Amino acid sequence: MAINQETEIEKSLYTLLKEFGLLESEINLYLISIKLGPATIASIAKNLGIPRPNVYKAILGLEKHGLAKFSEKKRYARTFVVEPPTVVLELLRKKRGIMDDLDRMLVGAMPNLLANYHQGETPTKIKVLQGKEQYVNAFFSILDEEGEETQFFGSAKDFVKFISWDEEYRWMAKRESRGIFVKSLLLPSEEAEFLHKTDIEHLREIRILQGMSPFVTAFQLYANKSLIWQPAAPIAVLIEDEYIVTMLRSIFEKLWEAAKLNV
Fold it and tell me: Where does the Transcription regulator TrmB N-terminal domain lie (predicted)?
């Protein structure tokens, strides 16, 4: 095997072991043991350039992770050997599977957790998101935190023009698969009219608000947060404050009722 290829393989294995939660000393022990095969503590200590007590500590760490064992010989003649890299991969896949299950469970529970969360006197959190990637990521994060309904108010024309119809349709599909309803209060535009025609198909209600001076921005409400979209810059301002969200919801509902009268 070429030296460069061997180095790359070692780097990959190092990354896997790091992700598995091993300490630096444990990783070094594992990597050197693969090359040495069954070896005595004295031999391992010499190759690693560390005292024997430190080797024993690293061995204990590997044993806890199920990656090492001693031979069954008498104590004075025992050699140490690590499990093959296939075991590392198997254990890591199992760990990732558990983490994926926890992630799905937490995402599913997030709307209820946030519904029961009361900010009280804790400080308002404000975050400025810049660029299209952060903009789109914030848009999709809404679906992880809201379980029932989100409200959008502003210019559909400028919002969709910035994120693209592809991203809008992707978001719609994900929202619908999770059963999340959206109320959209939109300024007049061809995009707004187009979206309005397919309300029933896409788990939403759109109302078009007449008589306002045009603007390019929008805000969206979900859970205990509000996102203010500014596609011209582009930036998005994420505000986590239940009092501000309550105020914006009140404004939204008033304008929502006003738009109904225009139908």
Answer: 17-76
Cis peptide bond N-terminal to 234, omega within 30 = yes
Q: Which residues make Cβ contacts (< 8 Å) with residue 205, sequence separation at least 6?
A: 181, 182, 183, 184, 199
Which region, left, alpha or beta, applies to residue 115 given φ > 0 means left and ψ of -120 to 50 means alpha? alpha
* Residue-wise pLDDT tens digits, 192-233: 999 998 888 889 999 999 888 889 999 999 988 999 999 988
Instruction: Please answer whether residues 78 and 43 qualify as being in contact, where contact means their C-beta atoms are separated by less than 8 angstroms.
Output: no
CA dist., res. 75 & res. 18, Å (int) = 31
Number of neighbours of residue 235 by Cβ within 10 angstroms? 15
The H or E element containing residue 235 is: strand 235-240
pTM comes to 0.56
Q: Are residues 186 and 132 in the same domain?
A: yes
8 Å CB contact between 152 and 184:
yes
Measured CA to CA, the distance from residue 113 to residue 248 in angstroms comes to 22
Tell me how many domains the chain contains.
2
